[in-house]
Amino acid sequence: MKPLQQDDDLFRMLVERVKDYAIFMVDTTGYVTSWNEGAENIKGYTADEIIGKHISVFYTEEDIKSGEPELHLKTAKEKGRFENEGWRARKDGSRFWEEAIFTALYNTEGKFKGYSKITRDLTERKRAEEKLRDANKELAFQNEVKEKRAAELIIANKELAFQNEEKEKRAAELIIANKELTFQNEEKEKRAAELIIANKELAFQNTEKEKRASELIIANKELAFQNIEKEKRAGELTSANGKLKKGEDAIRKLNKELEVNLTQIIDVNQELEAFSYSVSHDLRAPLRAINGYAQMLEEDYGKSLNAEGVRKLGVIMENAKKMGLLIDDLLTFSRLGRKQVQKSPINMNKLVESVLIEISKTIQYKTTLKITELKPASGDYSLLYQVMMNLISNALKYSSKVETPLIELASEDNGEEIIYSIKDNGAGFDMRYVDKLFNVFQRLHTTAEFEGTGVGLAIVQRIIKKHGGKVWAKGEINKGAEFYFSLPKK
Amino acid sequence: MKNDEVEILLVEDNPDDAEMTIRALRKKNLSNNIIHLNDGAVALDFIFGTGQYEGRDISKKPKLIMLDLKMPKVSGIEVLEKLKSKDSTKTIPVVVLTSSKEDPDIQKCYKLGANSYIVKPVDFDAFQNTIAELGLYWLLLNQPII
């Protein structure tokens, strides 16, 4: 028996030294009774720590709650053996994947003595398996995706197939178009041939043009020569221009001088007007005194004067009055110098009518007036009124001594101007002195014959000239006089 | 003659014209209360109670002023301007006397508010008639707005 005993010891040592497997014994109620190195390696307990403890310490809390340890032992007892894999707890609380085999142990008499348990740590393998499974799942998912994609590709294929058909149709059309292009090419070649012919024609024309160009070169030379001539002429013109400019400067200088002169003339004119006004104004006062005192003398002492004394007083008064008239006429004449002509359309018939009404207020006449419808005038009403007043008054005055005085008024349109005429059958005048008629203070009759100041016709001439017209006269002694004046239409 | 009886104030520097004017007025019995002053400065003194007329009761105003335009020192225009610019004197009728109808001052007179003007004619009869008519018109026919 001894050797056998020895074998038993060896075997126990073998078991105890196994490092990769946990091999230990459990009693009938599940308490650990032996322990080896492998068990210590895998589960972390030393033999001293674990012997006598229940196997449930190897299980997770969840497994303990669901009664796994008891179930495993029971199954192993009933079936003699129970194999199992699962997550178990180490001493330090970490988990590992255990492959375990429980074996029910019986002694030789067949009495149940407990269990043996052999365990392997398969955590690495388990992890590898899980990885593999995850990888498989991924692959499965990828497969699905690929299948979907495949389905999509099938649809896309169909679409492509359709497009292919379309392209084939189009290709067929292109073939037709190609044929058309080929035809057109042929046409172009024909046209090219024609162009070659045309080119030859152009080449011929070019030659012609070259000939013409050489002719133009000759013509250009001629023009260049002419240009030189023109430049010479331009030089001459420039110097002529210089001379003209000098002339112009001289003219400008003269113009300035004239302007200065004109200003001086205007100044002198104004001075003269002021002078004539002032003179006539101041001349009236002594005249008024002469006349007034003569009359006072006559009124107060007339009775103590004889007839000759009264007559002489009368002469004094007459002359004073006459000088007053002269001064009035002179004033009117000088006023015309500064009056502006304000033109407007004038009905000359009405103007003459109002002149005659005015005259009839102071003079009684027995004259026959013959007025032919007068054409309208363009002029200054008050000035032309003065003209007609003077001319008609003159005509009345100088015809007053004939037996049947006659005055004729008429007008005539010569296109650019209207000519008015006043004729009488009175005293007339000597044509030798016609030039003197229109001068101030010039008279062709004595005061004894006809009264007057010699200013009336000067006024007429001044007014008509201001209108841009002319005055002239015809006459014959004792046959009458004709006075004319013209007025521009505009 | 007392100042407060003045009816016509004649302002005329030419003594001959003044005499003829007064004679014309006298003929129409208008010369009783006439005062003749021979220049514009004295006229202003009289009207406004200054200078030689200092202390004159200026509420006694002439009923008509006959004013010659052409006078030395203060002209008729200046007198007229002063008269018409003062409320106290602008209602006094003023007849302007001038030697010529061409006088450029005539328009100015009307603008300043002269009531009439007379051109002193060379013809004495015409002169007398005009003066007398105007004197009558302003003194007897025209009631002053005083």
Quickly list its features:
heterodimer; A: 490 residues; alpha+beta; Heat Shock Protein 90; five-stranded mixed sheet; 10 helices; 61% helix; B: 146 residues; five-stranded parallel sheet
Word description of this protein:
By secondary structure, chain A is α+β, with helices and mostly antiparallel strands. Chain A has helices spanning 2-17, 37-43, 47-50, 61-65, 68-79, 123-301, 307-338, 348-362, 381-399, 456-466; strands at residues 21-26, 81-89, 95-106, 112-121, 344-346, 368-371, 377-379, 406-413, 417-424, 471-476, 480-488. In chain A, strands 6-8-9-11-10 form a five-stranded mixed sheet. A four-stranded antiparallel sheet of chain A has the order 1-4-3-2, with helices on both faces. Chain A has a two-stranded antiparallel sheet with strand order 5-7. Chain A is elongated, with a radius of gyration of 79 Å. By secondary structure, chain B is of the alpha/beta class. Chain B has a single domain, classed as Rossmann fold, CATH 3.40.50.2300. Chain B contains five helices and five strands. Chain B has helices at residues 15-27, 40-48, 76-85, 105-112, 124-141, and strands at residues 8-11, 34-37, 64-68, 94-98, 116-119. The interface between A and B is medium-sized, with 22 and 18 residues.
Order of helices and strands of chain A: HEHHHHEEEHHEHEEHEEHEE
Reading the helices and strands of chain B in chain order gives EHEHEHEHEH
CATH architecture heading of chain B: 3-Layer(aba) Sandwich
Number of domains of chain B: 1
Coarse morphology of chain B:
globular
Shape of chain A: elongated
What's the CATH H-level superfamily name of the domain at 339-488 in chain A?
Histidine kinase-like ATPase, C-terminal domain
